[in-house]
Design a protein that fits this description.
The structure is a single chain. Residues about 30-35 have low confidence and may be disordered. This protein has helices at about 50-65, 65-85, 100-105, 110, 145-150, and strands at about 40, 45, 90-95, 115-120, 135-140, 155-160, 170, 175, 190-195. The strands form 2 sheets. Strands 3-4-5-6-9-8-7 form a 7-stranded mixed β-sheet, with no helix packed on it. About 25% of the residues are buried. It is built from 5 helices and 9 strands, in the order E-E-H-H-E-H-H-E-E-H-E-E-E-E. A hairpin with a 2-residue loop joins strand 7 (about 170) and strand 8. Helix 1 packs across helix 2. It is an alpha/beta fold.
Length: about 210
């Protein structure tokens, strides 16, 4: 399961401090967030309930953090019950569209839920990946050099189409296909997680996307 907040500055609060050109082509407009899934109200106004929900969660986090934490705990516990019924292990991605430092702002999560696997992507080169919170660093045109000097796994978006293979190596590192699954916590170490450009990013020429 994943927590979807509003990306970058779209809610009025910055949820991704190291965002760059990628903010314009964020995954917020893919999947259930695509524009054609907007609803028309009786007064003729068009509204996208998925985006409204993301903004509401974000405003709650920044303006009413206590209530946000209480709700998050409640929902994780609900998902634990669901996972138990399915005979599954609960895996939680806290930043689907954001880059919040939960390890600093909500460290008690790991004490409350020691059996939940939590993981994330991050564009923040100063965050630290740990055994109980593995982070995959996400390369963009701003953090490129810092990321490639690290020993952590790095996600890179390539201008490769859905049915085409990713490059085998990038900057001397093995590339694994990150579109096969999102279980980044199970990846081998010191690799590149290759991702294909999706949504509006497929036709974007920004330096966030690596040309091959």
């Amino acid at each position: 399961v994943g927590l979807q907040l509003a990306p970058s500055f779209s809610s009025g609060y910055n949820t991704c401090s190291f965002a760059s050109e990628c903010a314009k082509i964020c995954l917020t407009n893919t999947g259930h967030g695509q524009s054609h899934m907007m609803q028309t109200l009786p007064n003729g106004e068009a509204i996208h309930y998925v985006h409204v929900a993301r903004h509401a969660r974000t405003i709650l986090l920044f303006e009413y953090p206590k209530q946000f934490k209480e709700q998050l705990i409640k929902e994780i516990r609900t998902q634990q019950i669901r996972a138990k019924r399915l005979g599954a292990i609960l895996v939680l991605r806290l930043n689907v569209l954001s880059d919040i430092e939960w390890e600093k702002g909500f460290p008690e999560l790991w004490e409350l839920f020691p059996d939940v696997i939590m993981y994330d992507y991050t564009k923040n080169p100063f965050r630290k990946s740990t055994s109980n919170y593995p982070l995959t660093f996400s390369r963009n045109e701003i953090n490129h050099d810092i990321m490639l000097q690290s020993n952590g796994n790095i996600a890179v978006v390539f201008n490769v189409k859905k049915d085409q293979p990713l490059p085998k190596t990038f900057k001397g590192r093995q590339v694994v296909d990150g579109d096969l699954h999102d279980n980044r916590f199970s990846d081998p170490q010191n690799i590149i997680v290759g991702l294909r450009a999706k949504g509006t990013a497929k036709n974007n020429n920004s330096n966030f996307i690596v040309k091959v």
